[in-house]
Amino acid sequence: MKKILLFLFCLFSVAVSAQTVTKTSHKKAVKTDVVTTGTMTVRKPDYICISTDNDKDQLIMDGTQFTMTMGGKKHTTDSRKNAQFATFQSVLTAVINGQPIPTGDDLAVTTQGGRKTITITPDGKKRRQLFTSFVLVIDAKTSAFKVLRMNGRNEDYTEYVFK
Question: Is the predicted pLDDT of residue 146 greater than 90, yes or no?
Answer without folding.
Answer: yes
